[in-house]
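Hi R.,

Here's the chain you asked about this morning:
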Amino acid sequence: MIAMEFTDAAHNAASLFTSIFVVATYTMRTMIPLRIFGILTNVVILAYALPTHAYATALLHGVLLPLNVYRLHQMLQLVRDVKKSVNSDLSMNWLKPFMTERPCKAGDVLFYKDEKAEEMFYIVSGRFRLVEMGLDLPTGIITGEMGMLSPSNTRTQTLECLSDGVVLSVSYRQVEELYVQNPSFGFYFLRLVSARLFENLGRMEARLDAREADSAASAKV
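And here is the predicted structure, written out as tokens:
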């Protein structure tokens, strides 16, 4: 009798918590709180399923629990990496797990100036040049992120492959999904891209100053 009452109480508690979780999925707007709530739900249902021998339910939530824990860790790690990049070397290496590999041949053009921008690239190997600036890009750098912030979403440069190599690509839509899932990521991402924009402007100004200095020196000769 007592065992049956315990089973009924556990079943009712699990059903109530499951209903609350379903409601929460429609009310929570960000992924981190939803993952945390999902972990709590998995734990509660496991605590109900094992004593009552509901092994199918226990197996399901035994699989979902580590998955939720992993996804939560992944999102928290992403925010930490972006925040660290903002405060250090402006690297975007933290995006690599979300990117797709793409081989390139010499002469390939990854994008043209003024065309619609839909993705950014991480240079793994090979030689690539921003044609209009005449700037060769080193490996380990991300390019193409400025098109995401452009009001018209158009490219400001042409990117050409000079020697065979490999790039990783990620679409702006994927980056936007990461932002929607976690606003903290979006905040630090905007800070990071803004810092890189000012860095690029500073580099361009330095190149212009050097050209003017060379022109002045040639005129004197």
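One quick note: The chain is about 60% helix and 15% strand.

Cheers,
M.
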